[in-house]
Design brief:
Chain lengths: 301, 291
């Protein structure tokens, strides 16, 4: 019996082989190859790469465009993680604790579905739509002119001082729905008697929000923060479709920069260095964040 | 204390459940305005896609359409060969979803049910696949695909995205299967079922709802995927809707009604999909978050 059991265990390895082969082929080998390429100068194609040591990294640290792209990433963490989480929390609490109670569940799920809709569009479609809305002769400016606010009409995506703001706004529009849906499903498992007890104590809506909703949603907030943080560090498609990193690199991000050098300038080694740094940064931040989460949940209970 | 609150609770709670007259309508109105603002771009696309260019020029983008004209939609439909793109998107998304679900299931079976040694370490390594930016993989993959003749082929995109999605699927299914009742499996073993039979005849039927949610998610993620299809699918005949839209957004010279038509056609498949699978999707986001 025992023997059969241990044989049985070994047999399960067969099931993991296809997945691991795929993982090695698609993730592990390319990741290592990318690291190796980052120590070379290479134009791509059949001319072999030439080893240059840390030269790409040294140049990268002096590249102001790269440092700019890192700053933009910080801003996109705000517009992709922080703002959508805050808006999502408030909306989820209002829908769950107010609309569902004062009206009915149909209304709250109707709102939830509506706010979620932008989240599932292909980002490139979002790009086509919003470039049209934000262009100098687009919708936003037409609305502003109709309201007599001509001076506020701007070239939103083409002016370096507004482009970042405009892209951030589009990202918020896309991301709120995701936070909302996760938070509302988290609220569904909160014991309703908690809210009733709070109402007995005459707690205001804001009081309930602060002392019940947010603490109860901590696990969801962590998950959403982690996933959107990783997404913010990788943001690519919105930049590609809305601004191509411009004007004058005002909106470029590491992902776009490495794509640009890989496939447009053919500075493959340099691009690989950017991608490698970005990978290290993402994994370090991700692991730190998960550590924090496990400490928090271990300390909390 | 407990007794008093449980005594008084029903009375007071019935009291507070009495709908509060005016204030609640204000909150509802505010929310409706927010929702209208959120969905405004969708309406804009729909309104302007069916206008004539002259109507747009005369009355602007905000006016309700006074003309009904499908020329812009028809033009976009034929110039980008939309049916072909739609077919490619469906084919790639469906194949990727199936591949990723099967791979996830096999991995999770070994980790969650088989409890293979190193299973937990494997899960940690799979995290890399979730966290690594695709930029760090794309060039070596591009080079490899060119070497083996899989460049500009939908198969390469299906394999790459299938494996990448598998990381998340393995996570989710492993934790689900770790709590799968052992008695059921042991009963099957006593009946001399092989491991393969147990997987397909015992576990898959129980997991079917979870697998459906997972497949729906993989489908949508693949549909919206951009970088990998952009790099790998260079010829017009292989491109997906997402790539076609990305290429289009670079060219800002078009007629506004043409852009509206393009947006509308880009939105429609996803919205239709959303309306069909709305419940699955919103439930699935929740399932993914809890684990």
């Amino acid at each position: 019996m025992v023997k059969a059991g241990s044989e049985g265990k070994a047999g399960y390895y067969l099931y993991i082989i296809p997945g691991m082969l795929g993982f090695a082929l698609v993730v592990l080998i390319p990741l290592i190859a990318n690291l190796a390429i980052s120590f070379t100068t290479w134009k791509g194609g059949n001319i072999s790469p030439r080893y240059v040591g840390f030269e790409n990294y040294q140049r990268l640290l002096q590249d102001s465009v790269f440092w700019g792209s890192m700053q933009h990433t910080l801003l996109f963490i705000i517009s992709m993680t922080i703002v959508p989480i805050l808006l999502g929390l408030v909306l989820a609490a209002v829908l769950f604790d107010y609309i569902a109670a004062q009206f009915n569940e149909t209304w709250s799920s109707f709102f939830r579905a509506g706010f979620y809709l932008p989240q599932i569009l292909p980002l490139t479609t979002v790009g086509v739509l919003w470039t049209w809305i934000l262009n100098p002769f687009g919708i936003i400016n037409a609305v502003l002119r109709a309201l007599g606010l001509d001076f506020m009409a701007k070239n939103w995506l083409g002016d370096a001082s507004y482009a970042l703001l405009a892209v951030s706004a589009v990202i918020v529009w896309v991301q709120v729905g995701y936070c909302l849906v996760v938070f509302m499903s988290g609220l569904a498992r909160v014991d309703p008697s908690l809210y009733e007890a709070a109402e007995l104590d005459n707690a205001s809506w804001f009081g309930r929000f602060r002392s019940i909703t947010i603490p109860m949603l901590m696990p969801e907030i962590f998950v959403v923060a982690l996933t959107t943080l990783i997404a913010a560090l990788k943001v690519f498609a919105p930049i590609y479709v809305l601004t191509s990193g411009g004007p004058d690199n005002a909106t470029t991000v590491p992902s776009y920069l490495s794509y640009y050098h890989f496939f447009t300038t053919n500075r493959v080694g340099y691009a690989a260095a950017i991608a490698t740094l970005q990978t290290v940064m993402t994994i370090v931040l991700g692991v730190l964040f998960m550590r924090m989460q496990s400490k928090q949940s271990a300390g909390g209970h | 204390m407990a007794a008093t609150s449980s005594l008084s609770a029903p009375i007071v709670s019935a009291d507070h459940r009495r709908k509060k007259g005016f204030g609640r309508w204000v909150v509802l109105a505010i929310l409706l305005v927010f929702l209208a603002a959120t969905l405004f771009p969708f309406f804009l696309a729909a309104f302007n896609a069916i206008k004539t260019a002259a109507d747009y020029a005369a009355n602007g983008p905000l006016a309700f359409p006074r003309s009904f004209d499908l020329t812009a939609l028809k033009n976009f439909w034929t110039t980008v060969d939309f049916p072909r793109k739609l077919f490619n998107s469906i084919l790639i998304s469906a194949c990727t979803a199936v591949l990723a679900v099967v791979l996830s299931l096999l991995n999770a079976y070994a980790i969650g049910i088989g409890r293979v040694r190193g299973g937990q370490a494997l899960l940690v390594i799979l995290l890399i696949a979730i966290m690594a930016p695709q930029e760090a993989l794309v060039y070596p993959l591009y080079y490899m695909a060119k070497q083996v003749g899989l460049f500009d082929s939908m198969l390469s995109v299906i394999i790459i995205l299938g494996v990448l999605h598998t990381a998340f699927g393995t996570y989710l299914l492993s934790s689900v299967l770790a709590t799968f009742p052992r008695e059921i499996i042991e009963a099957a073993q006593i009946d001399n079922a092989t491991r393969w039979q147990i997987l397909w005849l015992v576990i898959v039927p129980v997991l079917r709802p979870t697998l459906a949610v997972l497949a729906t998610f993989f489908f949508i993620w693949t549909w919206n995927e951009f970088l990998i299809p952009l790099v790998f699918l260079v010829s017009n005949n292989n491109q997906t809707i997402s790539v076609a839209m990305g290429v289009l957004s670079g060219s800002n010279t078009q007629e506004p009604t043409a852009i509206a038509a393009a947006s509308l056609l880009g939105i429609l498949p996803t919205v239709i999909f959303f309306l069909i699978f709305q419940r699955t999707l919103t439930r699935g986001v929740a399932a993914g978050a809890v684990k």
